[in-house]
Automatic annotation (TrEMBL):
Pfam families: I-set (PF07679), Ig_2 (PF13895), Ig_3 (PF13927). GO terms for biological process: cell development. PROSITE patterns: IG_LIKE (PS50835). The keyword Nucleotide-binding does not apply. Gene3D superfamilies: Immunoglobulins. The keyword Secreted does not apply. This is Hemicentin-1. Residues 16-95, 99-216, 221-301 form the Ig-like domain. Keywords: Immunoglobulin domain. It comes from the Eukaryota.
Length: 310
């Protein structure tokens, strides 16, 4: 009597088979780490090949690791497993988000009135951010105005103009890359009202950023004709007071000086005042305003009338 036993080892051959769904959608943020697993079972073991957007990658392991991932790493990743019995694929649709971030916006800018000035704001983000430039609570330029039927800007740019305080503004948006945008605001014949703080705001679905820029408009000295309070050629009786007002403005504030018949007199403000005039006060008066950006002058002709004497 006895027992006989024979052991058979059954080795089942198979083509590559993936675990789970054949397609997966993955969302991550910039600078995170991402691990993609091929998840294939095959006998004999399959060879592995990874690709991105149908371009072969130099990756042959079951696991694909992406460190400090960037928006440019977004796309369709495919793991292809192959042995003598067949092939199988595992696909990952990877989206990398990056909150909107302003990369360039000058903190300060100066311009002389009457010239052209341009303000540029560059931002990056995924999705591509909407960029706007704001002044005194008004949106002067926005890339949102340049979208058509929900489609993003192409590589070229579109230009818009708008009237603003009797000035013409133009803005354009240029797509520097899939995730970078530059918004430029140009204004011709700049006036004093264009001075102040400008805000650049960049925003997308996952964040926003803002920066400010102080624009200083230098205004050469000029006569503010709307502020002239009296005639510039007149005569008064001797003994009466003389009052002359010199509305010369500018930025920075001009230094003012007065002249009578070409000779300087001791007044240095906008107002010249004499409490009681005499015959010698008759003549041509000139107010001169000066800065490093220029000068302007305003002249008055003053006659002194002498009452008849007995």
């Amino acid at each position: 009597l006895g027992v006989a036993r024979k052991v058979y080892r059954l080795d089942v051959m198979s083509s590559p088979q993936h675990w789970g769904e054949p397609t997966a959608f993955v969302e991550v943020f910039k600078d995170e780490e991402l691990t993609l697993e091929c998840g294939m079972h095959a006998n004999p073991p399959a060879s592995i090949q990874w690709s991105k957007e149908n371009e072969i990658l130099d990756e042959f392991e079951e696991v694909l690791e992406l460190n400090t991932i960037q928006p440019q790493d977004s796309g369709l990743y495919t793991c292809e497993a192959e042995n003598i019995f067949g092939t199988a694929e595992k696909k990952y649709h990877v989206t990398v988000y990056q909150p909107a971030e302003i990369t360039s916006f000058p903190p300060n800018q100066t311009v002389i009135a009457g010239n052209v000035f341009t303000l540029e704001c560059e931002a990056v983000g995924s999705p591509l951010p909407i960029v706007s430039i704001i002044h005194k609570g008004e949106i002067l330029a926005s890339s949102a105005d340049l979208e058509v039927d929900g489609m993003l800007l192409d590589q070229s740019y579109r230009v818009k103009s708008k009237p603003y305080a009797l000035q013409t503004q133009q803005f354009l948006a240029t797509k520097l890359s899939q995730y970078e945008l530059r918004l430029s605001l140009s204004q011709a014949n700049v006036a004093e009202g264009s001075a102040g703080k400008y805000l650049c705001l960049a925003q997308n679905a996952v964040g926003f950023d803002e920066r400010s820029s102080k624009v200083i408009v230098y205004v050469p000295p000029h006569v503010q004709l709307n502020k002239l309070k009296a005639a510039r050629n007149f005569a008064i009786l001797e003994g009466l007071p003389l009052y002359l007002f010199c509305p010369i403005g500018g930025y920075p504030k001009p230094a003012l000086s007065w002249f009578r018949n070409g000779k300087p007199i001791k007044f240095n403000g906008q107002t010249l005042f004499m409490s009681a005039t005499t015959r010698k006060d008759q003549g041509n008066y000139t107010c001169l305003g000066e800065t490093s950006f220029g000068k302007a002058e305003l002249s008055f002709s003053v006659g002194i009338l002498i009452p008849p004497t007995m």
